[in-house]
């Protein structure tokens, strides 16, 4: 099988490539990535020259380049991870989110229609369902929960999902969609909660918790997400949406305290800062469908996954230090300087 994996130099896409190469070593993978601020070629350094792997630097919105790649490679499967993924950046400037996440998705699917594929898989998010109240722990997102977005990021991801379903119904494109909860693990870009708190704590810098810190996210170890996508590609039903999550809801403040404890840092580093605009209160995925239909279950317990993740950041300063020394400094100053 030959796959095009877009966004494979980012957090989940790179973990997916590592997963797929070890689970299906005979398959060929072409990673298409624009290498935005969030893409790191260094993440893929060990496989750049490997057989059955090719890296192509390109923008999914660049129709001629995407078509030329499909014409040359004739992929069987396309897995689309490429996206602008950070909610805070989407609040500052939505435009690139609309371009990459919506128009880019349509370009990829047009290429799939033109050159023919056996599966187009769209990597979506639980954020398309909006949020849930803190005082109703009985409520969870199912695949039938109506789309109800809060941020420009989630609105762009929901728009892409609607387009994917439209291409299936209108053109018969063989699509699947996964909607996963918050991932954590190796190669997570330092702007996101868990790596940001680990790296700041290591430097004894303040740990900026938005608002009261009681917002709840449903955390899943990235490898479990990758296995779910693998299963959906192999066994999932065309035209279907699958929620992915491991029933692991945690308040932000508890995650930050746990990181302090694991690193032997004082909780006095925690500082409550101005809340995110439109901040979703709680996410909670009901993964019953993917369990029932495809037999998927998460394998990594949060206690183990967070330990592995913290250890990974302790041992891979060579990966994250160049990132935080670069353009990230400006981003951090702009986002947190006067917060
Ligand atoms: P990320 O920001 O770490 O990586 C995104 C990657 O896409 C980068 O390598 C970047 O260079 C690439 N990219 C961006 N724009 C591109 C373009 N125009 N053309 C080609 N490549 C481009 O993101 P992530 O956290 O790995 O998320 C991957 C996907 O999973 C996204 O679609 C996101 O919406 C979804 N998702 C993420 C989470 C999470 O917790 N991180 C959870 C559920 C779903
Ligand atoms: O739910 C899936 C989504 O998870 C994905 O679709 C997104 O691509 C991914 O970025 C993530 O979105 P979140 O907004 O939930 O992740 P983030 O790490 O930005 O924030 C997690 C929570 O922590 C959120 O409630 C905001 C809070 N937070 C975040 C940062 C960066 C803080 O309190 N302080 C911070 O400095």
Helix amount, in percent?
A: 40-55%
> By helix and strand content, what is the structural category?
alpha/beta
CATH level 1 class label: Alpha Beta
Q: How far apart, in Å, are the first and last alpha carbons?
A: 49 Å
The proportion of residues in beta strands is 15-25%
How many separate domains make up the residues? 1
What does this structure look like?
This protein is α/β, with parallel strands linked by helices and 339 residues long. The protein has a single domain, classed as NAD(P)-binding Rossmann-like Domain (Rossmann fold, 3-Layer(aba) Sandwich), CATH 3.40.50.720. The protein is built from twelve helices and 13 strands. The strands form four sheets. Strands 3-2-1-4-5-6-11 form a seven-stranded parallel beta sheet, with helices on both faces. A two-stranded parallel sheet has the order 7-10. Helix 1 (11-23) packs across helix 7 (222-235), helix 4 runs parallel beside helix 5 (152-171) and helix 6 (193-202) packs parallel to helix 8 (252-263). It is globular. The N and C termini lie far apart (49 Å). The mean pLDDT is 98.
